Automatic annotation (TrEMBL):
Gene3D superfamilies: Hexapeptide repeat proteins
Family designation: Belongs to the transferase hexapeptide repeat family.
Record-linked Pfam families: Hexapep
SUPFAM superfamilies, per database record: Trimeric LpxA-like enzymes
GO molecular function: acyltransferase activity
Domain of life: Bacteria
InterPro entries noted in UniProt: Hexapep, Hexapep_transf_CS, Hexapeptide_acetyltransf, Trimer_LpxA-like_sf
Acyltransferase recorded as keyword: yes
Record keyword Transferase present: yes
Protein name: Acyltransferase
Length: 154
């Protein structure tokens, strides 16, 4: 129901969406959330000053904390995967790990952030990247899987 309301054209700005998410029990006060966000649980924390563009996806299986950072449209935060099972059925037990995005970070459009990743303060993740490992502070990463592109001034 909350995801349906978040996509509604009746909710006209990010501040209203943030208030709706706060009323649903999420910790998003002081952030700006544009339309089309899908939230799987209350374990998403958007710190004051966080900005999320349209169409973000949070699977909700583990905690996601986003600092005062910018998240572009279509970014997926996937906090769960599975162990490899036996040949009869390869999908094994569910494994979850949190994701953390530091202050000042910028995540480009349609990037996918996988379980257990920390994106450091002031880091950039290029559009379309698949982030499988931590991104150090003040660095730019891109690609599938993500790799260091260059260091940035702090």
């Amino acid at each position: 129901m909350v995801n349906w309301l978040l996509a509604s054209p009746l909710i006209i700005n990010g501040a209203h969406r943030s208030r709706l998410l706060t009323r649903a029990g999420m910790n998003v006060r002081g952030s700006r959330v544009l339309k089309g966000v899908t939230v799987g649980s209350r374990m998403v924390v958007l710190k004051p000053g966080a900005f999320g563009n349209e169409g973000r996806y949070f699977d909700g299986n583990e905690r996601v904390v986003i600092g005062r950072a910018a998240v572009a449209q279509g970014v997926r935060f996937v906090t769960s995967t599975h162990e490899i099972g036996p040949s009869e059925f390869r999908v094994g037990a569910l494994v979850t790990q949190p994701i953390h995005v530091g202050d000042g970070a910028w995540i480009g459009a349609f990037a996918t952030i996988l379980p257990g990743v920390t994106i450091g303060n002031g880091a950039i993740v290029a559009a379309g990247s698949v982030v499988t490992k931590d991104v150090e502070p003040n660095t730019a990463h891109g690609g599938v899987p993500v790799r260091l592109v260059r260091s940035l001034e702090g």
